[in-house]
Amino acid sequence: MVRKETIRKMVDMHAPASRSSLDRDRAVDRIRRLTVGTTVAGIVGIGAFGGLAATTWRGTDTTVTTAAVITTTGDDAASGAGSSTGSDDETPTATDDTTATPSPTATANTQATTPTVTATGGAAHATTGSS
Amino acid sequence: MIAPAEAPRIQSVSWRALGTGVRVVVHDGELGTARAAVDALLDRVDRTYSRFRPDSELVALHARRAGFVPISPLLADAIEIALRAAEQTEGAVDPTVGRAMRAIGYDADFATLGARSGPIQLHLEPIPGWQAVELSRVLGAVRLRPGVELDLGSTGKAYAADLAAAAALAAIDRPGAGILVSLGGDIATAGNAPDGGWRILVAEDSEVPVDADGETIAIPGGAIATSSTTVRRWRRADRELHHLVDPRTGMPAISPWRTVTVVAETCVRANTEATAAIVRGGSGLERLAATGLPARLVATDGRVVRLNGWPDPELVP
């Protein structure tokens, strides 16, 4: 003999059609939130890493960045800072953090050892000269 | 029975690319593989930053003027190296000489310049300067100030030599192998040198045959490059011109040195210092001496000065 309470439980187990639809909607909603959260976290991470990369490239001398984006007109052409031959309508007045300019700290090749040179005879493997 | 070890072989091949002579020397490795790797690399370089190919990325960049323009990683690297060279030499080697180069008539592959002989209008005008270039590695983009045209020829060829040597060695993929790549006399090496080092004939013209008489040195690795006002010369009417532009004037440099050869850890560094020594004129010798890099300078009167451990040819063993 089956008790009424047990029958109710069995009915609950077999007829939750409306609830399962609700649950599915909630699950989809949860997945969306997770996806959006992960995306936002990813973008923030990329931004942070990018900022770090830009800062590292620029080195410690932040004035270099400024120098690289301001048009200068003067006699000191030897320093490469001669007057621009173009118009000034696009001359930037400020720089953003992502603008990278060459920096002495970015120079890795000066750390390497300079090869020694010896005098030799015989046929060469190659010729150095201008082309 | 154990087979005798195969003796290391040295093989070489020469051809033309980028408007100049290319030579690849392989020590104990597969020459065909090395050549294919160098060829592929040079083709990429040509399509990316040739000033004379209408379909190159650099030419397309010059056609776009507004804001930051996205560029390929290779072009970004080449521009970064050129800007770094400009900063290190305080503007003596500057990539913004592109317009000045055109103004003095160097506006096509050098082989075609000889056919032109008409007069040319020359203006003394400082170049825009490397500060007119903004490179963003984060954006993968560059912004040029209006009127700026880049010529990556100086550091660009040397960078291509460095890249080609590394690419060929990687392609060979054999322990103990070594590679030498010469692009018009800009020479980079990678891997193991043959016994006694890489032997280099030092000349003013890179087309001089390797078995010609002359000063020969040996380097265990690294790179060597030569800049000279004697080879890429052309005449327009009564004017004799050459390709080393002085950024202060936008005109061919006037220097007491006609040819400078430098040994360094990379071909970019060697080429940069050699070119800077000529462009700097009177102060070139002192500044080059301060770098500590072995160097050989030839004055316009033929006098030779050797610096920083560059051996005297009389010391040949």
Strand order of the largest sheet of chain B: 1-2-6-7-10-15-16-17
User: Which superfamily, in CATH terms, is the homologous superfamily of chain B?
Assistant: ApbE-like domains
Cα(first) to Cα(last) distance of chain A is 105 Å
CATH A-level architecture of chain B: Roll
What share of the residues of chain B lie within helices? 25-40%
Rg of chain A, alpha carbons? 34 Å
Number of helices of chain A: 3
What is the strand and helix layout of this fold?
The complex is a heterodimer of chains A (131) and B (317).
Chain A: H1 4-14, H2 17-58, H3 62-69, E1 118-119, E2 126-130
Chain B: E1 10-17, E2 20-27, H1 31-49, H2 57-63, E3 69-70, H3 73-88, H4 98-103, H5 110-113, E4 133-136, E5 141-144, H6 153-172, E6 178-183, E7 186-191, E8 198-205, E9 215-219, E10 223-228, E11 233-236, E12 239-242, E13 245-246, E14 251-252, E15 257-264, H7 267-279, H8 284-291, E16 295-299, E17 304-307
Antiparallel strand pairs in B: 1-2, 2-6, 3-5, 4-5, 6-7, 7-10, 8-9, 10-15, 11-12, 13-14, 15-16, 16-17
Helix pairs in contact in B: 1-6, 3-6, 6-7, 7-8
Explain this structure.
- The complex is a heterodimer of chains A (131) and B (317).
- Chain A has three helices and two strands; from the N terminus they run αααββ.
- Chain A has 131 residues and is mostly helical.
- Chain A has a domain at 1-72.
- Chain A starts with a helix and ends with a strand.
- The relative contact order of chain A is 0.09.
- Chain B is of the alpha+beta class and 317 residues long.
- Chain B has one domain (10-307): ApbE-like domains (T-fold).
- Chain B has helices spanning 31-49, 57-63, 73-88, 98-103, 110-113, 153-172, 267-279, 284-291; strands spanning 10-17, 20-27, 69-70, 133-136, 141-144, 178-183, 186-191, 198-205, 215-219, 223-228, 233-236, 239-242, 245-246, 251-252, 257-264, 295-299, 304-307.
- In chain B, strand 6 (178-183) and strand 7 form a beta hairpin.
- Chains A and B meet through helix 2, helix 3, strand 1 and strand 2 of A and strand 2, helix 3, strand 4, strand 6 and strand 8 of B.
- Strand 1 of chain A pairs antiparallel with strand 9 (215-219) of chain B.
